[in-house]
């Protein structure tokens, strides 16, 4: 492998780490939505049981109720933690995106990774062709700075 091929591979790997870092915000948004859906489902199932039993107390149902309450409590704590994580990720990622000098590059990364838009939607939003949006994206990734410790964590996770 030549030096040029080695640099290209390293550059590509670096960009993949940056993309993975940027996608973490959307992953957090998706996790919050999932936890909220699970909470609705669990509450609905419990409501269904109460209706089935007409609200009459039963000896066996006592542990079920405490298990239900404990599970709801755990999931609500998970939801609060994930919402906090989402805020931290948003502040970090959007702050790094805002540091880019080129507004088009900044817009592409924001709309793609924070707002989760498809490429054609990003192109429509910033009024450029998809091809030009991909060019801006490549340049933006080259200019984006992410912390070295984040790169190391992503690299460790991808090696698992």
Overview features:
single chain, 160 residues, mainly alpha, 2 domains, 6 helices, DUF1492 domain-containing protein, RNA_pol_sigma_r3/r4-like
The shape, in one word, is elongated
Strand content: under 5%
- Low-pLDDT stretches: none
Class computed from helices, strands and strand pairing: mainly alpha
Number of strand segments:
0
Q: Mean pLDDT, as a whole number?
A: 84
Order of helices and strands: HHHHHH
Gyration radius, in Å? 23 Å
Count of separate structural domains: 2
User: Percent helix among the residues?
Assistant: over 70%
The largest β sheet comes out as: none
Q: What is the CA-CA span between the terminal residues?
A: 26 Å
Number of helices: 6
What does the model show?
By secondary structure, the protein is mostly helical. It folds into 2 domains: 79 residues; 44 residues. The longest helix has 50 residues. The radius of gyration is 23 Å and the shape is elongated. The two termini are 26 Å apart. The model has no long low-confidence stretch (mean pLDDT 84).
Summary of the model, kept short:
With 160 residues, this protein is mainly alpha-helical. It contains 6 helices and no strands. Helix 3 packs across helix 5.
């Amino acid at each position: 492998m030549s030096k040029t091929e080695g640099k290209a591979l390293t550059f590509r790997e670096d960009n993949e780490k940056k993309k993975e870092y940027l996608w973490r915000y959307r992953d957090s948004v998706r996790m919050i939505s999932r936890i909220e859906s699970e909470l609705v489902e669990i509450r609905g199932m419990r409501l269904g049981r109460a209706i089935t039993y007409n609200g009459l107390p039963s000896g066996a149902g006592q542990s079920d109720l405490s298990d239900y309450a404990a599970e709801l409590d755990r999931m609500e704590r998970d939801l609060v933690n994930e919402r906090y994580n989402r805020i931290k990720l948003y502040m970090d990622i959007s702050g790094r995106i805002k540091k880019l000098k080129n507004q088009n590059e900044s817009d592409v990364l924001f709309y793609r990774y924070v707002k989760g838009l498809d490429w054609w939607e990003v192109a429509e939003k910033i009024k450029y062709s998809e091809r030009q949006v991909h060019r801006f994206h490549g340049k933006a990734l080259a200019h984006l700075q992410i912390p070295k410790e984040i790169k190391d964590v992503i690299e460790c996770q991808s090696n698992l």
